[in-house]
Structure prediction request, 510 residues.
Amino acid sequence: MSGRLFIIGTGPGNPLQMTPEADHAVRQSADFFGYKPYLDRLNLRPEQTAHASDNREELDRARAALRLASSGRTVSVVSGGDPGVFAMAAAICEAIESGEPEWRRLEVTVVPGITAMLAAAAAVGAPLGHDFCAISLSDNLKPWTVIETRLELAAKAGFAMAFYNPISKARPWQLGRAFEILRANLPGQTAVIFARAVGRPDQNIAIHALQNANETHADMATCIIVGSAETRIVHRENLPPLVYTPRFLRSEPKA
Amino acid sequence: MSGRLFIIGTGPGNPLQMTPEADHAVRQSADFFGYKPYLDRLNLRPEQTAHASDNREELDRARAALRLASSGRTVSVVSGGDPGVFAMAAAICEAIESGEPEWRRLEVTVVPGITAMLAAAAAVGAPLGHDFCAISLSDNLKPWTVIETRLELAAKAGFAMAFYNPISKARPWQLGRAFEILRANLPGQTAVIFARAVGRPDQNIAIHALQNANETHADMATCIIVGSAETRIVHRENLPPLVYTPRFLRSEPKA
Prediction:
């Protein structure tokens, strides 16, 4: 007997940014695995069971969810944002590849969600309106030297950039170092957006020039967007500025 | 008297992937601007007016929407996917920057949506589960040489890649050339996903090795995801394979 596994994204936290498709998956599921703050966003019925876990146990959590789904239950694994962007979908795939043969027979459905960078970009205009990249600044899962190389190449390519996992208590200096690398490769005036808790009641957006950007502007709940050399700020009276990266690029980037 | 402007994303086409926030904006708006197939996705009331236009008139469309909103109407500008990713939000910001002073006094709200690459990734597993970039292959808005440089740098950086606007009648050879550049920089076995019409009734997903990928696999409605050298394919009996890029990277990429 085989159950079913959904891997869903709740979006950044505003319930109006969670899709009906994710909502349907929640209503169909009996068991829920995920980081507690994400599970707390769901309005579960009394007979639905939340299996909350710490944020740093993705592979154990994936295996527990697969085991339960294989026993015949309908299970949702829950990520904030989109489950495919630095989140649970890759962990589930990895667990299936290395795990029990019956896990390959499970029906697995990944339900996309609004990932943090899209909500952060929307909150200020369109800083990701041209080519861009998304980089996790966490060196828990890859060597820091790789991250440094990627930052340099992304700046040289003229990509706008979104940073996930920019800083934590265990990783205090990496973000400051990332800004140093970018300052060596991009104009000091390049716009940097610090979008904290986007879509949630405590949302806070700050825009700094790259030359003044530093790690004190961010915490674990911050998504950072670094513009390209082409990114523009449109000032407005009595309204927050709009930040956008033009669709057009007339010549080779200068950076 | 000042109106209001929403810039909304419908998601890739499956109505269950459009957020309640976008739906609320639609219900509040009197006038709608956008490419006709996107406007056709909305269930407008008889008193709501659709101003459909061709897909290649973004700036004119932006100005028309701003003019009407400034006259006091509540207007929605509609993109497929997410309005901030190769879509209308940047065009509206550009029109505001270069346009009438009163356009800077308008309340403008960008409502994020599920962008094509997230739905395409979800349909096959988690190919964007590690650092990645999004590149428009259209050389209508930037020189082709810039695109070539970006492809090379993205491959060297070890990014998975999503390609928007991969091909059109007016741009027949660019995608084939892009694959040539990638073949010079990535293993021939690298997974390439051609996701056509994701979330729509005619959805079609094909996975090819980079060495066999060519422009005949794509059309205007295709979002292409190119894995990194680390991307893996998990084969399953009687189910489509899962494609994912592992969260872990143990050393410098080989590519």
About this structure: The first strand of chain B starts at residue 4 and ends at 9. Helices of chain B lie at 20-28, 36-39, 58-70, 88-98, 116-124, 144-157, 174-183.
